[in-house]
């Protein structure tokens, strides 16, 4: 790790790749070298700084912000402007991680030109290094249009949350062979990596060994080339949904509750602020 200046968080995580800004070729090299990639989501500056200090390889400003930040039931209402707003904040906290911004529902489906214009806004206005596009075969033209303008695209297949209205809920929507076709179409359209969500581990492993680009799994087993989780889930900050594939690495929600309760109690009984917190 490069030394951190005072006031910066410093992570202790040893990383197999150099501590400099991660690039799209670094993701591809990691797969060739058999190094597993780490990704998490962030939606604001403070969380981005923490993840970056812990040497996470990639940070996704996911449309999951519709649920964990905005409190909606799904991600469909998230707008491009909202993703740009959060991406800009996250970009200020990043020194090392690759910053990927999600293309929200209806920001890429209309025409490949619409997809390209909106991907360009995420890069120019949001400061993203790459964009993520849901859907395999059906999104191939949009992915091709974006990558032809040298904007790196991460695909997303399997459970694609933007399709919940068509499929009646959060479930894996395609048969094995169709998923393999989606993966291959995503790679052929020029994507540099692909998220595989909620797919049986054996199939995810088969897709990972078929593709040259890295696969980033979520609920897709250990055979993927990397993993991603929603940070609020793995830190125990969001408890409305507890998918089976999430491992909770901390119970920050409980810590926050206890801290806030202690603060309220001390204010009410007059023990905070104490002498050391006062000016004279
Ligand atoms: O929106 C999101 O956070 C995502 C990840 C779960 C992959 O798409």
The CATH topology of the largest domain: TIM Barrel
Q: Which architecture of the largest domain does the CATH hierarchy give at level 2?
A: Alpha-Beta Barrel
The spatial strand order of the largest sheet comes to 1-2-3-4-5-6-7-8
Distance between the termini: 43 Å
Compounds present? 3-methyl-2-oxobutanoic acid
Largest beta-sheet characterization: 8 strands, parallel, barrel
Structure description:
The protein is of the alpha/beta class. It folds into two domains: 24-249, TIM Barrel (Alpha-Beta Barrel), CATH 3.20.20.60; 252-280, no CATH class. It contains eleven helices and eight strands. It has helices spanning 24-33, 45-53, 65-68, 80-91, 112-124, 140-148, 164-167, 176-188, 201-210, 231-234, 252-269; strands at 37-41, 58-61, 98-102, 130-134, 153-158, 193-197, 215-218, 226-229. The chain has an eight-stranded parallel barrel, surrounded by seven helices. Helix 9 (201-210) links the parallel strand 6 (193-197) and strand 7. The longest helix is centred in the last third of the chain and has 18 residues, at 252-269. The chain is globular and about 65 Å long. It starts with 23 loop residues before the first helix and ends in an 11-residue tail after the last helix. Residues 1-6 and 14-18 have low confidence and may be disordered. Bound molecules: 3-methyl-2-oxobutanoic acid.
């Amino acid at each position: 790790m490069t030394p951190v200046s005072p006031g910066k968080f410093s992570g202790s995580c040893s990383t197999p790749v150099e501590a400099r800004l991660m690039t799209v070729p670094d993701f591809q090299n990691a797969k060739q070298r058999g190094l597993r990639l780490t990704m998490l989501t962030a939606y604001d500056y403070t969380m981005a700084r923490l993840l970056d200090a812990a040497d996470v390889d990639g940070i996704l400003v996911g449309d999951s912000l519709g649920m964990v930040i905005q409190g909606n039931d799904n991600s469909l209402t998230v707008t491009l402007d909202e993703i740009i707003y959060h991406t800009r904040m996250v970009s200020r906290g990043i020194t090392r991680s690759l910053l990927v911004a999600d293309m929200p529902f209806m920001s890429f489906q209309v025409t490949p030109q619409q997809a390209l214009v909106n991907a360009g806004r995420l890069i120019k206005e949001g400061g993203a290094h790459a964009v993520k596009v849901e859907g395999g075969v059906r999104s191939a033209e949009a992915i091709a249009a974006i990558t032809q303008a040298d904007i790196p695209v991460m695909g997303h297949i399997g459970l694609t949350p933007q399709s919940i209205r068509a499929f009646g809920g959060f479930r894996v929507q395609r048969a094995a062979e169709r998923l393999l076709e989606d993966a291959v179409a995503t790679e052929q359209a020029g994507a540099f990596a692909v998220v595989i969500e909620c797919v049986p581990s054996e199939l995810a492993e088969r897709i990972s060994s078929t593709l040259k680009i890295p696969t980033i799994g979520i609920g897709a087993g250990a055979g993927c080339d990397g993993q991603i989780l929603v940070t609020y889930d793995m830190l125990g900050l969001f408890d409305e949904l507890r998918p089976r594939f999430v491992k909770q690495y901390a119970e920050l929600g409980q810590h926050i509750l206890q801290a806030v309760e202690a603060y309220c109690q001390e204010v009410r009984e007059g023990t905070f602020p104490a002498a050391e917190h006062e000016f004279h």
